[in-house]
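Record pair follows.
FIRST:
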Amino acid sequence: MGKISLSVMECLTLEKAEKKQLVEKLAMLQRQIRYKKIPVMILIDGWGAAGKGTIINQLMIPLDPRWFIVYNEARVTHELRHRPMLYRFWCDSPADGEMVLFNNTYYKEIYKRARKDGMVPEELIKEINEFEQSLIDSGTVILKFFLQISREEQQRRLETLEDNPITRWRVSEEDWKENRNYNRIASHWNKIFPKTDTKAAPWTILDSNDVNAASDTLLLKLTTVLETVIRKKEEAERTAAPLVPLVTADAEAAKKSPLDQFSKKNILSKTDYRNRLRVCQKQLRDLEFLVFRERIPVVIAFEGFDAAGKGGAIKRVCENLDPRGYRVYPSSAPTDEEKAHDWLWRYWRGIPKRGHFSIFDRTWYGRVLVEPIEGLLSKEDYTEAFGQINEFENQLVQFGTVLVKFWMNVSPEEQARRFQEREADPLKHWKITDEDWRNREKRDAYVVAADRMFKETSTKDAPWTIIDGDDKYYARITVMEAIIKAITASLSKKSQKLL
């Protein structure tokens, strides 16, 4: 009882000279990590009083604090309670060349739920494995350590801390509760380890009954891994093939695409439009209050051709909403800070809390639309992106998010007319750029890329809705009615669960 299922690494105390040499090597490796732009994420979990603070302090001594951040386990705030569990870890994930350490991690959430329900939450484990794999795919190095001590040693340390007036504050009732339930808690961890001990992010279990030996062993493990990672990065740089466009124009395929099939019947008169717009905007306003009351997050994603009506549709959706309840995120070329993180990082930061709307004017789908056409990513990254997108959206849906995805379509003829209109109108001239005309020349390539995108990412819980945008009035009303339908269905489903 109480035995940890994974093998515990034997820890050895280094001689003073060996420790000095190791510390100097780690400082040098951090500089190389910075130069090579390799993000590093270190997770330290373990028993209360296992020595996490001491080990973290010793780890930080040789490191440059400008490129090293420690995040302690914090009480979940009101704000965080209304966001997906991994939201803050996505936001705090390391940038290129940065080392981030989490003291007590998202694995504690699995443990807490297992302790409460008696079962390991499989969906949460799946999300964590996907989170780690996504970071690893983007080049992040993940090291996971668990500090193991015996029940007797934990009790002795807690008593020692409690007997000292200076350290008494460090011991909580939760620590003693953990000690009393040591065997049961160990059984929960033993269910967690095998399910999260992956090839790319394995666990290292350290015997922390001797804190100094555990600290020395962690330092040794860290330097060994970083040396290997740097060597592999240098080899990859030497052998890397130049990036090339992965999606090119295919005129025959474009002709068969649903994006090039247009209906001339999808037209609304101005009178019909105004009447239906008034009804839709009132419904959306009423639904916004219900969404807030029921704490349902809403994500609305817009993709499509330039001048297809994304901005006009977004304006009409938001026109009658309470501005405190929504935010629009225009997605342009990534900033330097965004490029230094995993490509999904900037979109996770825009995920709404429960009861609020996030509206994305262009989205994470740029990864499989723009980048493969412009030759900005490798074939492997392109292939992986579809799975990463589906995992991302599935996590949102599992959290209870209403996710609506629109492709705003427009015919080549109507697009050309709108471009010319923008160029001729001084008030609209800012809307048209040389890049818009350049992208228009690549329309067939975008059609090929979009067709694959629909095939790979139109799922049961997150389907695509293609909007015929040649008539702006029709497009705007269709968008609003689709949003109303999706939110109403979610509210209905929630009501049924309460019955």
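SECOND:
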Amino acid sequence: MADLPRGAESPWETRTRLLVVRAGFDKPDTQFLLVDDRGRLVAQVDMAWPEYRVVLEYDGDLHRERDRYARDVRRRNSIRRLGWDVVVATKELVVRHPDELLERVASALLAGGATDLPI
């Protein structure tokens, strides 16, 4: 498989990652590939903390289209079947409710076994 880009795929993904890192969380891996037990690709996710099995995805306005939304729900269900927690960020959460998003990230990381979190 060819190397994939490791950075953000949108400015809002970058803003989301910077919010998390500036809040004191460990830097997540970006454009992380999730594979099943047979080595088949299940998803490429925006950000992940693999050691805690936590994914952080940014949903932009395109995700509101019905077909895209349906695909995203199926994809997230597949990720959850692998035992990963999925945190979803939106522009509104990043801009207007960052504490709520950071609390959700912290909760997911704690559930995955993280300790010594900033909040």
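COMMENT: Residues 1-5 have pLDDT under 50 and may be disordered.
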